[in-house]
Amino acid sequence: MYTNEENIEMNCLDFRRLALSDPNSSQPSFIIHGKECPDCRQYIAGVMQMDADLSKSIDVQMPASLMARLELNQILEEEAQESARKNSGLRRYAMAASFAAALFVSGFFASNYFGSASLIDEDYQALLAGVAEHMNEQPLTPVWDAQKANESANTHLANYDGEMQLKFLENLQFSRICPMGQYRGLHASLETSNGQVTFAYIKGDRVDDLLDASYKGYVARIKPVRGGNLIIMSRTNKALQVADRQLEKAIYWDI
Amino acid sequence: MSNSGNEIDQEQVNYSMMDKKRKYALLIEAHSQDLYKYALWLCKDKNMAEDVMQEAFLRAWKSLDSLREAKAAKGWLFTIFRREHARQFERKQFDYKDVEQMDTIADTNNMGYDDRPEAFALRNALIKLPKDYREPLEMQVLGGFSCDEIASILDISSSAVMTRLFRARKKMRQILGHETMPQLGVVGN
Predict the structure, then answer these.
(1) Which chain A residue is nearest to residue B164, measuring alpha carbons?
(2) Any residues with CB less than 8 A from the CB of A111 and at least 6 apart, and which?
(3) Is the pLDDT of residue B118 over 80?
(4) CA-CA distance, A160 to A2, in Å (whole number)?
(5) Average pLDDT rounded to a whole number, residues B104-109
(6) In sequence order, what are the residues at sequence separation of 6 or more whose Cβ sits closer than 8 angstroms to the Cβ of residue A124?
(7) Which chain A residue's Cα is nearest to B144?
(8) Are A132 and A216 in contact (CB under 8 A)?
(9) Which residues pair with A76 in a beta bridge?
(10) Best interface-test mutation with A: which of B31, B61, B174 has the largest number of A CBs within 10 A?
(11) Per-position b or e across B160-172, b if 16+ CB within 10 A of its CB
(12) Distance in Å, alpha carbon of B95 to nearest chain A alpha carbon
């Protein structure tokens, strides 16, 4: 179909075929013909203009937040790998670990004595511990159809917090009011394409700011919302992000 | 490859000697914008495009050691992206029941595209192409890939890519009413 002999003169038919296949072709015969034939020169200009216009019509700027997330995901992944690597070496270095633990405990007492703040505030830790504890205590979570799960969620919410409302979530699997450590709150699970996500709404004092943290193998997000805190936990950051976006749209307050 | 200054600089970089983090940072800097453009067009949904992008870059990070040459980076990244897109799209079929209908709309709001009628007509013409023709054209025009690179990404021969590109552009021109020049086969020389 196409001539590969670069020194063979190209005719208009071949030129236009190649112009439609590869307008930026660097074949010498193609370039020479383009220079010598005014009709074909006009033809290729039209093709290239169409390409340029097409590219422009689909041009969009990437959100800056996405750029930040691409970088953050890499950092989290690296940390997870590092943590997994360290865990695998734990048995081997049991003695060293014991020593480190002793150091940590003494450091903990020392920091308390001197009034230093821990890395993550106690409120966050307590909320995370409560939800994680409940998840570990109840490893078997029912999977309901979305209709039932949504009805249940609305009923429970009406009893638990009359103001918080939930729009219909087609991937809601389960919801119930459960004890979670020192708290009690709405426990629900969502199915996402990246895995299951557990979220809890716990009424009470709100934490100051949103916090993302890794906790006992989970990726967790604690965010203050009206009337309390929302804790979202998943095995993957991806699933957490998807669920959070979904919940942001679904949760509203009837006040 | 595309002619952006970034990528020309990129091709002169020796990846094999580079720290993994630096390599990843360069990948993002050089190719994320092009990939996002392609992703949004392919997914027709901002959230999904961002999800697939994130997952693709994460996979890229995990296997970054296998990337040795900077000039292969873009093709390598697009291949990872396309596989991830296929995987996620398969999973999310239930969310996107009416993709065909969405395609005919050609212009989803909130995607940030040029809203002039000419731009709309071009996007509509592209959508009307059969997938086999549309795909290589998208890769050439949006991704800036050469025929050989497209052949490698799509795992087909270069001549098949050339044929598909020829038919894609010819059909585009017909749809847009650009075929005012003498038709192929009747041009004298």
Answers:
(1) A21
(2) A118
(3) yes
(4) 73
(5) 49
(6) A207, A211, A213, A222
(7) A55
(8) yes
(9) none
(10) B61
(11) ebbbbbbbbbbbb
(12) 9
Predicted complex ipTM: 0.79
Q: What is the mean pLDDT of residues B57-79?
A: 88
What residue has token string 């205590």?
Answer: A137
For residue B51, pLDDT over 90 is answered with no
The answer for A227, left when phi > 0, alpha when psi is -120 to 50, beta otherwise, is left
CA angle (B13 as vertex; B12, B15 as ends), nearest 5: 140
CB contact at 8 A, A152 and A201: no
Written as six digits, the tokens of A143 are 């999977």
Q: What is the three-class DSSP state of A252? A: strand
Q: How far apart are CA B150 and CA B144, in angstroms?
A: 10
B157: helix, strand or coil:
coil
Residue B66 to residue B129: CA distance in whole angstroms? 35
Is this structure's pTM higher than 0.80? Answer: no
DSSP A224: E
CB contact under 8 A, A54 and B122: yes
Q: Which domains does chain B have, with CATH numbers?
A: 16-113 (1.10.1740.10), 114-189 (1.10.10.10)
DSSP-derived secondary structure for A165-222: EE---TTEEEEEEEEETTEEEEEEEEEETTEEEEEEEEESSPPSS-EEEEETTEEEEE
Blockwise average pLDDT, block size 10, chain A, 255 residues: 54 93 91 92 93 91 86 82 71 61 58 47 83 78 83 82 83 86 86 89 87 84 89 90 89 77
Phi, psi of B69 (to 5 degrees): -110, 135
Q: Which residues contact A51 (CB under 8 A, 6 or more apart)?
A: A23, B140, B141
Q: Do B187 and A2 touch (CB under 8 A)?
A: no
